[in-house]
Structure formats: C-alpha cells, structure tokens
Amino acid sequence: MAGTKKKKHSFPSAYTVIVIVLILVQALTFFIPSGKYSTLEYNSGLNKFVITEASGKTIKKPATQKTLDNYKIKINVSKFKDGTIYRPAAIPNTYHQIKKPKRGIFGTINQFLTSQVQGIVDSVDIIVFVLILGGVIGVVNATGAMDSGMMRLSEKLKGKQKWLIVIVTSLIGLGGTTFGMAEETIAFYPILIPIFLLAGYDTLTAVAAVYLGTAIGSMSSTINPFSTVIASNAAGINFTDGLPMRALMWVCAIGISIIYTIRYAEKVRKDPSKSLVADQAQEDKDRFLGDLDLSEKSDFTARQKLSLIIFALGFVVMIYGVQQLGWYFTEIAVVFLAVTYLLIFTAGLKESKFVDSFVSGAGDLLGVALTVGLARSVGIVMENSYVSDTIMNYFSNKISGMNSVLFICVLFFVYIVLGFFIQSSSGLAVLSMPIMAPLADVVGIDRALIINAYNWGQGLIGLIAPTGLILVSLSMVKVGFDKWIKFVTKLLIMIVVLILVFLSIGVLL
C-alpha cells in the first residue's frame, strides 16, 4: 500500500540476548550427558586433602606431596597450603557420567526462573557497587562540575583526539594483563563517554577503547594472579615460564586493537554518518552531554573542582586497592559510598536535591546492574546440570593424539568453547589444567604453551560472549550487541590469526 512505512526491526536488548542464551544453554543440558571429575581440595582446618568423588562420596587424605603424586596432580603441595590453589582441582582420569538431575517441565521452568534470581543474588556486591557509582555520578552531575570540567577538557583535546584512545586502551590493558582489571572498568564509562563525544567520536569508540583494553589485556595476561599465575601453578610450572612470549603478545594485540579503533574513530570524526551508531547519535548527545553548550563560557568554581578531585580520588583508591590489597566489589563500593559522604560537604546542594540526584543517578544504572546478575544465571545452569566436566572430558580425549602444532592450535579453540561456558578464569584454570597440562608431555611440547592456549582462548571469547562483560558494557551506552559484533568481527579474525602464529612458533622453537 502506498505511503505505508516499512517496519524497522531492531536487535534485541541486552536482557533479551542473555535470556535467549540462557534458554539455548538450558536446552543443551538435555542433550549433553551429565558427568563429573573427582576433585581434590585442601582443608586448612584439618590440614588434609578432601577428595570428592563423582558420586559425592568424600575421602580425607594426608596433605602431602605423595598424595598429590598418587593422584597424578603435578602441583607443589605448598600451593594448596598457602592458598594459591583455593578451588577444588580436577583429578586426571577420574571422569564419570552421573545420572542427569530430573527436571520435567515444571522443574525446567523453575530452573530457568531460579537461576536468574540466584544470579542476581550471587552478583549483589557488583550490583551494589554499580548503583552507588550511579548515585555518585548523579550528584557530581548535579553540581555542574562534570559539564564545566568537560568544557575545559574539550579545549585541550583539539588536534590530540587520537591520544585518548591510545592512553585509555593502553592503561586499561596494563591493568588487565597485571591484575585482571575487568568489571572495575564499568566505573569508567560514565566519565569517558562524554569526553569521547566531545572529541568528535561516538559511543561505540568509547566502548572499544575501554573494553578492548580490558578484554585484550586480560587475554594477554602476563602476571595476572587470577589466570596466568593460578593456571601455571595448577599446571605444575612457574608462571614466569613463557613470560616473554606473553609480553610480546600483549604488545602486538593491544597495538593492533589501538590502530583498529583509531581507524574507525577517525572515520567517524571526519564523517559522522559512517558511525555504526549514527542512528542514535543525537540521542547519545542528549543523554551524555545534556544541555552542554561549548560556545558558552562558564565558571569552573573551586567547589566544582574540589568535587571532581574527590570523585577522581575514588578511582585512584579503587585501582590501588584492587591491585595492591586484593579488594573486590564490597570494598570498592565502600570507597564510592565514602566519596558520596564527602560530596555532602563539597557539592553545595540542598539536602533534597542531593538525595534526588543520588537516587536518580542510581536509577540510571539499574538496568546495567540487572544485566550483571542475569549474565551470571547461565553459569548457574551449567553448574547445576553438571555438563562442564563432560565438555572438557570430550575435548581432552579428542586432542590427545594429535601432532604438536595441530594439538596446540586446536586446544586454543577448545579453550574458546570452554571459556564461553565457564566464565571464571581461575575456575577454568584449576578445573582444566590438571587434565590438559599432562597432554603437553604426551605430544612433546612445553606446558607453558598450554597456559598460553588457555589464556588466549578463554580471553578472546570474552570479546563476544554474551555470558561475559560485553553486554554489561554495551548496556552502559545503549549500544546494540549486533553493532558491536559488526564492529569487532574483523579485529577478532586478526587476533585469532596472530594467536595461531604465536602458538605455532612456540611449538617449532
């Protein structure tokens, strides 16, 4: 019919994508057999190893190296006693299928709903942090400090926009490779996005600069205690083995990511219509820049400067605490709650305005907070269905007889699959290394290459896995998952080729 407008189909939101993935994973658990490896865990109170068999039966054994040798776990006993290996380690050659938990229609529906609630409960520390952060940002915005500060910054950025991407990606990448900076980067988006918009870029560029920094940085882990160190210990080697190759991978992968992002960003700056999010450009400016008028000069008061300094110090304390003191989200949330109370004295807002601004700011990030919890639900379904061990056992059997180059390249793809289903880097390390590391001896390669395949595989899938942090990051800026996939696909292929070259060279050397 003439004049009838074609209906525009939009890609599902972050919530819907996670629910779709949850349904698909839940469907898979009906077809993948349930199974478990026996595990070994150190009990410090008893000073004994507790062996948990697939049947659920537990056995206590002396916490000695001989016990570990008997179970063919090539890990130094001291690593269990000093807390380095704090998760149950899988015992090689002990996989057994178990009876699949009975569910039925109502049981399946119950699992579907319960896993989402449980995911939110399990993620409550991150959720509280996100809400408090949103509240703090709401207060700082209400003072006008953010607008005044951005106006001054926009003057400094002229002609130097590219350095934004270089500095942000490099610094966050350093955090990723050294101490596994990941969820903490959520805090940077509300601050950096307006700066990127003022530089002439789009919101997707801001996500790329931050998220590629954390994802590629964590993937190229050098001394990250939550992946490289714990995986090396679980594989029975020193984490410094293979360190030069990992450092070189970080330089190459981060370098490629920066160049890739700059090429896209500069194309957008010169021609905004080339942006993958051009259809929401005005909406993004209204949301993140508000009524900011760059042509109008405004006073940057001492009160506003002090508020921004206190806010910035919160990030400094957060980074120090995470890196040096082993803080997690409860401690980080406390830091920003303290910032909130300090702002009471510096913001200059009336009590009602202060509270309204905090509540409104927290409300703006409520969707992000819920996304964090929903993403956790997929892992809960996997754990309760006991299919993760089955997947790992299947792959370990398939790759054990391959030649060395093919073995390490296929193992990289195996870890991509395992990383999709098991999002915890430390959990995947302790579960898989006692099984996978001995296979290196069979094919005659260095165990350090197993660590590299693990790092690079489970790290790389983080770029696109809906069960990971990417949907949370995209929901911060309301960018669709389809647009991110369109942006990152070519980069993903380049990094895969780079990794396969590095792994092959590692075997041949």
Task: Explain the overall architecture.
InterPro entries: C4_dicarb_anaerob_car-like (IPR018385), DASS-Related_Transporters (IPR051679). It is a multi-pass membrane protein. The chain crosses the membrane at residues 12-32, 126-143, 163-182, 188-211, 223-241, 247-265, 306-322, 328-349, 361-382, 402-421, 428-450, 456-475, 487-508. Keywords: Cell membrane, Membrane, Transmembrane, Transmembrane helix. Helices cover 68% and strands 4% of the residues. The protein is mainly alpha-helical and 509 residues long. It has a domain at 40-87. The protein has a four-stranded antiparallel beta sheet. Strand 2 and strand 3 form a beta hairpin. The longest helix is centred in the middle third of the chain and has 28 residues, at 243-270.
Class from helix and strand fractions: mainly alpha
Low-pLDDT residue spans: 1-6
Say what oligomer this is: single chain
Main pleated-sheet profile: 4 strands, antiparallel
User: Radius of gyration, rounded?
Assistant: 24 Å
Keywords: Cell membrane, Membrane, Transmembrane, Transmembrane helix
Membrane topology: Multi-pass membrane protein
Transmembrane segments: 12-32, 126-143, 163-182, 188-211, 223-241, 247-265, 306-322, 328-349, 361-382, 402-421, 428-450, 456-475, 487-508
Organism: Companilactobacillus pabuli
What are the defining features of this structure?
6 strands; 22 helices; mainly alpha; two-stranded antiparallel ribbon; single chain; globular; about 500 residues; about 5% strand; 4-stranded antiparallel β-sheet
